[in-house]
Write a structure and sequence with these properties.
By secondary structure, the protein is an alpha/beta fold. The chain has 15 helices and 9 strands. The protein has a single domain, classed as Alpha-Beta Barrel (TIM Barrel), CATH 3.20.20.210.
Amino acid sequence: MRQAGRYLPEYREIRKTVSSFLDLCYTPDLAAEVTVQPIRRFHPDAAILFSDILVIPDAIGQSVKFSEGVGPQLEPVRSVKDLAGFSSEKTNVHLAPVFETVRRVKAQLADDVALIGFAGAPWTVATYMIEGGTSRDFAHTKTWARADPEGFDQLLSLLVAATSDYLIGQVEAGADALQLFDTWASAVPADQFDRCVIAPTQQIIANVRAVKPGMKFIGFPRGIGPALAPYAAKTGVDAVGIDSGMSPSYAAEILQPDYAVQGNLDPMALLVGGDAMLDSAASIFAALRNGPFIFNLGHGVVPQTPPEHVAALAEFIRAGGQR
């Protein structure tokens, strides 16, 4: 989860050399370097592509920028008429630098280190497009989804098409597996969940597998709790990411018989480090070690995390969760 980033001093040095975050995402030599920085330091079993879920709105025609201390800022779309001029047809032309990054990373990785590509799931990407950034209540998104369901579905369909092409491009460039991040899935009302989360995710996976049969997917619909089991069954993912709020023992009982589980150390435990971190990690191992399991965080590394804590956790993981 956010393997590379501001907690690493070598990342911060590279970030100083570009004028914007998107410039870093679209500069293959720098994005590739940032992707492999944590591989050199911590030697995990997989690298995670350095990019951002909002390259898709940028690619289809929306104005996207990142401001330091503010986060992503987008020119909001609030109705079908605001989608005029948006198109998924040139997604992979616009995102060609990302595919070049994938190729460069893949060439640097050892044969036993996988490369995970990713994209944002349509619901979560739509919230940023509609709200104009992050949101507490997602009022504009929920209102549009209910007041004009056909128009909202048009936006989701646009995102499904663009995201499918983008992920196929990542696989063709060398990605070994793909992850779909639905960070704000928990904001979807229950009566809208199948339509806004399940159906778009299911369609993306089907589209990719129609071109790349057998491609493995990790789904991470953050914060949905017990809805994770039907999400996995309906979407066709191979593995599920669990956030820090889910009990590992629940995941072992309900999810692991059918899916690999990825998670779910609290990022604050990693920030604190020491015995508190290792005790939490050990409890996760104890619950999940008897089934298919990818040790990970329950969300992203926070910027103030000391790299030494990550190194200590990585050593603990390589020791099989034993102290």
